Amino acid sequence: MIDFILGVIEQGLIYAPMVLGVYITYQILDFPDLSVDGTFPLGAAVAAVLITGGANPLLACAAAIVCGAAAGVVTGLLHVRLKITNLLSGILVMTALYSVNLRIMGKANVPLLTVGTMFSGFLPKVVVALLVVVIIKVILDLYMKTYAGLSLRAVGANPQLVSSLGQNTGRVKITGLAIANGLTALSGALMCQYQRFADVSMGSGTVVIGLASVIVGATVFGKVRFIQGSTAAILGSILYKASIAVALRAGLPATDMKLISAVFFVIIIIIRNPAWKQRLQKLFGGREAA
Is residue 189 part of a domain? Predict the structure, then answer.
């Protein structure tokens, strides 16, 4: 049971940087960025190739962040400069990255069984993952308190206000997408080291995981005053992974994991819908009265 709980926490923390990236695009920028399905395996591909080539795992993670940020910039440029819709911009970059990831790895799968990774040291895996997430969260929270971070928040809430203050809203959006996809690529780099292989299709459904985790975190912890939005997103990542793990442990086949994720996401959306909330309250209230 302890191993099961540790495994859930480890995977939740490893996915947490990606969830923070989705938190930036979905919650702050109001930008449905689908390119994360491509930048997640991009980070894994870059890290796997560098580590198998003898590079330090930390440097491999840094390189993954840079490559992911570059992909985010491309998404932003397609939307801001070429006036392509946000959804289509993400889809185009996600599609292109599939081929890019294959080029980087040279094949569909790169094993890391014979090389050292960040999780190969004396520290437990959960501690390593926690340290990375804490560092990322602190840096992100500090950035959000700067003028650039406040501009990022303002663009999602009121872009006209940012323009009136002399800020280039397009540049702010591109910066936000770069940060978000850099975090997503870092998550992919961590995951490939954790599971000791990188696969070109490992990013499938990443955006669903990220959105579900953000919504779970906001739903459960959003009204707790001392919990920040970034913290709620991280806790939401762990809760989401725990829910999926419990479903699999209950006997549902692992081949249905994507279906389970989609159904879980739909349930979350329904619960958050005010109309459905009222229906559920009337339903259960009526039963209690009866």
Answer: yes
Which pLDDT band, with edges at 50, 70 and 90, does 290 fall under? very low
Query: What's the count of helices (H) and strands (E) in the chain, helices before strands?
Result: 12, 2
Judge contact between 37 and 261, C-beta under 8 A.
no
pLDDT at 61: 97
Q: Look at the block and give the residue holding tokens 């397609």.
A: 78
Summarised one tens digit per residue, pLDDT across range 156-200 is 777 777 777 667 889 999 999 999 999 999 999 999 999 999 999
Inter-residue contact 44 to 198 (CB < 8 Å): yes
Residue 207 and residue 37 in contact, taking contact as beta carbons nearer than 8 Å: yes
Identity at 171, one-letter amino acid code = R
Cα of 270 vs its chain's centroid, Å: 22
How does strand 197-199 pair with strand 109-111? Answer: antiparallel
72 domain residue, yes or no: yes
For residue 49, give its domain range.
2-204
- Rounded CA-CA distance 113/264 in Å is 33
What amino acid is encoded at 2 in this protein? I
Residue among 207, 189, 204, 191 at smallest CA distance from 25: 207
192 within a domain of the structure (yes/no): yes
Cα-flanking dihedrals φ and ψ of residue 109, to 5°?
A: -145, 135
Over the chain, what is the mean pLDDT? 89
Assess whether pLDDT exceeds 90 at residue 75.
yes
Interacting residues of 272 by C-beta distance below 8 A, sequence separation 6+: 215, 219
Q: Tell me, yes or no, whether 279 lies in a domain.
A: no
Total structural domains within the chain: 1
